[in-house]
Amino acid sequence: MKTIFNTLILALLSLSFLGGKEKSICIKPGEIWPDNKGVHINAHGGGILELNGTYYWYGEHKIEGDAGNTAQVGVHCYTSKDLINWKDKGIALAVDNDSTSLLVKGCIIERPKVIYNKKTKKFVMWFHHELKGKGYDAALTGLAISDKPTGPFKYIKSLNPNKGNWPLNFSEEFKTDTATMTNIKPKSEQGKTIIERGYYVRRDFNKGQMARDMTLLVDDDGKAYHIHSSESNQTLHFAELTDDYTDFTGRYTRVLPGESNEAPAILKHKGKYYLFTSGCTGWDPNPGRLAVADNIMGPYTSLANPTRGTEKQMKTTFQSQSTYIIKVNGKKDAYIFMADRWIPKNAIDGRYIWLPIKFDNNDIPYLEWMDEWDFSVFK
Ligand code: DGJ
Questions:
Q1: Whose CA is nearest to atom 1 of ligand 1?
Q2: Out of 28, 153, 307, 371, which could bridge 146 as a Cys pair, Cβ 3.0 to 4.6 Å?
Q3: Model confidence over 85-135: pLDDT tens digits?
Q4: How close is the Cα of 263 to the center of ligand 1, in Å?
């Protein structure tokens, strides 16, 4: 009898093994995160799209060594029903082998984000794009489109956004001199600081603004926004996308000018917009930042460091840098802070720091370390 009982228990336990891989029941920030094939998920600087109960995780596919810091493969896609167990769906956007293509292997593709356009029924991917061999100089945003969430995405274009448009919150006084600004060095901007005088905005007025670290937000009314580090990473730009999400309308604002924010990730909670960012220290972590606004395009007010914990955790955001905030389906006020622990010497080994977002008595979000956690943390 005892033997039959033991066999039954073993059979039940084996149901939780899928294709030889044990089903995971919790998230372990910073650990190796195996996909359905047992391979560490390869989707760095990622973002999540949720559609009809399926989550799609898009991120930078990295290879071993420091070559992995450039795009050798493309954007990887995984799917999941529970945000814990992920299926490898392969490369959603592939780099090009044609050396004349802007998306040639060896260029830089970072922080891809995908949104779904209900009107056109297209999946729209925007990503930070740099040209092969040109470092981070081009500061472009790239666009790729697909009929299916898992791709293949077709590369459409890369651009410096908002060409020929002034920010909505730009002083009339400085909407001048665009032609000659191209040759003016920042140091010749006397009096107020170069940021206050909008040096970079004016310099780039005719060619389009710089766009590096980025994220996307589709607001409740279906309007989408492209949020990116601009002005040589010194100021964020919040830019409205067209109704089909494939272009910029020209309406944009400067946010937290001169405060050098990177790695934007945004959540809307009880009508307020909470913006998580980092400072600019390359691949090294730094103290996370938080700001709040009543309107998506600002103005934003800076709040305290959202990280709670030891001094080291607060100084390094648990050794990570924000990339996206996931809204958990079917749970009230449930959001996940999604960040990268970069390992630039062996890029493929970068780890994922996912933590539940907590709210204090004033409804301000904050983060606390957990070695492992599951969705019972959400009410
Ligand atoms: C920090 C950015 O957030 C990353 O996406 C990447 O661009 C690194 N800088 C490169 O140093």
A1: 282
A2: 153
A3: 999 999 999 999 999 999 999 999 999 999 999 999 999 999 999 999 999
A4: 8
Question: Taking a C-beta distance cutoff of 8 angstroms, is the pair 322, 312 a contact?
Answer: no
In eight-state DSSP terms, residue 97 is S
Q: 267 forms bridges with which residues in the sheet? A: 274
Pairing of strands 224-230, 214-218: antiparallel
Domains in the chain: boundaries: 2-377
- Omega of the bond leading into 34 within 30 degrees of 0 (cis): no
Distance of CA 41 to the CA centre of its chain: 16
CB–CB of 301/289 below 8 Å?
Answer: no
Q: How far is the CA of 360 from the centre of ligand 1 (A)?
A: 30
Q: What is the largest CA-CA distance in the chain?
A: 91
Mutate which of 110, 210, 228, 289 for ligand 1 pocket (most atoms within 8 A of beta carbon):
110
Of ligand 1's listed atoms, the one at least distance from the Cα of 69 is 10
Verdict on whether the full-model pTM lies above 0.70? yes
3-state secondary structure of 203: helix
323 φ, ψ (degrees, to nearest 5)? -135, -30
Domain 2-377 listed as CATH 1.10.10.250? no
Contact 239, 226 (CB under 8 A): yes
pLDDT digits (tens, 9 = 90+) for 303-342: 999 999 999 999 999 999 999 999 999 999 999 999 999 9
Cα 342 to averaged position of ligand 1 atoms, centre (Å): 9
